[in-house]
Amino acid sequence: MIEIDKIALIKIENGQILSTRSKGKNKYYIPGGKRENNETDEQTLVREIQEELNVEIIPKSVEYIGTFKAQSDGAAKGIIVKMTCYKADYNGVPQESNEIEEIKWLNYKDLDIISEVDKIIFKHLNESGLLA
């Protein structure tokens, strides 16, 4: 089994979660990405969110939500995405970057347009009363 180590930002407002769709992709994903070199979770989160959403994470606001695993979309069976999720505040207004086609606020009814690991995260957030 191969594990892809990713860090993600959980940003919820009015019962909806901030999601992104990368260029050339059909599904929406919780923003974030893969760790580079020996980055900490926080360093990865700050870098990835700056790259994808053009906003700056406020480091003191970073709070662990949970770690979730599922089969990686479009990958061979046994390739697993491990998504370590944090909530955090940021400065700025999210805007699409070079790699992001669209930013959209999703709710629990949008399970058919998100990745497998995001479905697990959405279910957890819905059961916690955070996601409508």
Would you kindly provide a written description of the structure presented here, covering whatever features stand out?
This protein has 132 residues and is of the alpha+beta class. It has a single domain (2-127), classed as Nucleoside Triphosphate Pyrophosphohydrolase (Alpha-Beta Complex), CATH 3.90.79.10. The protein contains 2 helices and 9 strands, in the order E-E-E-E-H-E-E-E-E-E-H. It has helices at residues 41-53, 116-127, and strands at residues 2-10, 12-13, 16-22, 32-34, 56-57, 63-71, 79-87, 90-91, 100-106. The strands form 3 sheets. It has a 4-stranded mixed beta sheet with strand order 4-1-7-6. Strands 2-3-9 form a 3-stranded antiparallel beta sheet, with no helix packed on it. It has a two-stranded antiparallel ribbon with strand order 5-8. The model has no long low-confidence stretch (mean pLDDT 95).
Index terms:
single chain; 132 residues; alpha+beta; Nucleoside Triphosphate Pyrophosphohydrolase; 4-stranded mixed beta sheet; 3-stranded antiparallel beta sheet; 9 strands; globular; NUDIX_hydrolase_dom; hydrolase; metal-binding
CATH architectural arrangement:
Alpha-Beta Complex
Any idea what the shape is?
A: globular
Secondary-structure class: alpha+beta
Strand share of the residues? 35-45%
Q: Superfamily at the CATH H level?
A: Nucleoside Triphosphate Pyrophosphohydrolase
Number of helices: 2
Which value, in Å, is the CA radius of gyration? 14 Å
Helix percent band = 10-25%
* Structure summary, number of beta strands: 9
Number of domains: 1
Question: What is the CATH class designation?
Answer: Alpha Beta
List unreliable stretches of 5+ residues. Answer: none
Placed side by side, the strands forming the largest sheet appear as: 4-1-7-6
Order of helices and strands: EEEEHEEEEEH
CATH fold type: Nucleoside Triphosphate Pyrophosphohydrolase
Question: Average pLDDT value?
Answer: 95
Largest sheet: 4 strands, mixed
